[in-house]
Write a structure and sequence with these properties.
33% helix, alpha/beta, 6-stranded parallel beta sheet, Alpha-Beta Plaits, Rossmann fold, 216 residues, 2 domains
């Protein structure tokens, strides 16, 4: 998935780090040089310094290739303008915007934003959930959001169908169980079958990568 983030504040920087460490291709645009430098240092995101409302900067950052645009500017007026610009001029397929209140949310949705998050305390978790691919669910996550257990289903289109579990595991995550036809199995190195519900445990970034492999 290719994701562009507009805004390098608390929400934007945390998401840039999280998503890039999860294996997504992330681009961040922000006006502030210090923020841009910080994100470049702490993530794998490609960073552009400039005005997020400048079509030239957006074109340089390849907004037309973005599957999703996350707008976390902290200013509803600027956010609405960027929603309008991204939809009308660049045809971004999916926009997730952060608004300060319900009134702002309604305006952004009318302009074309697919998802608008209002409450600042939960915005990061909500955006993570919105970006998660379908077909799996979070069973547990710790209070810091660093450790989790997820369940993901092997579908007919999965590239891992018929492959062994050992091909999935990495240093950050491990497959600890499979529910197959209603029976729980402690996996050794079985081949994955269609309909298997695979339980993955470990660090958030590792679990996300394993789930993405199964869903690819």
């Amino acid at each position: 998935m290719q994701i562009m983030i507009a805004g390098g504040g608390v929400v934007g920087t945390k998401l840039a780090v999280y998503l890039s460490h999860s294996g997504e291709k992330v681009t961040l645009v922000d006006r502030d040089k210090n923020r841009c430098d910080w994100v470049s240092k702490h993530s794998d995101a490609i960073v552009y310094q400039g005005n997020v409302l400048d079509p030239a900067i957006l074109s340089e950052a390849e907004i037309t290739k973005a599957d999703s645009l996350i707008i976390a500017l902290g200013n509803d007026g600027f956010t609405r303008e960027l929603v309008r610009l991204a939809k009308s001029q660049f045809g971004v397929p999916r926009i997730i915007a952060v608004s300060k209140d319900s009134e702002g949310k309604e305006k952004m949705e009318r302009l074309g934003a697919e998802s608008v998050v209002c409450t600042e305390e939960v915005v990061i978790d909500e955006i993570k959930d919105l970006l998660r691919r379908r077909g799996h669910r979070v069973l547990y996550t710790d209070s810091n959001g660093e450790y989790r257990i997820e369940e993901v289903t092997v579908r007919a289109t999965s590239s891992m169908l018929g492959k062994r579990i050992s091909a999935l595991e990495n240093k950050l995550a491990k497959v600890v169980g499979i529910v197959r036809a209603g029976t729980f199995l402690f996996p050794r190195d079985e081949m994955l079958q269609m309909g298997d519900q695979v339980i993955v445990i470990g660090a958030e970034a590792g679990v996300t990568k394993v789930c993405a492999q199964i869903e690819a």
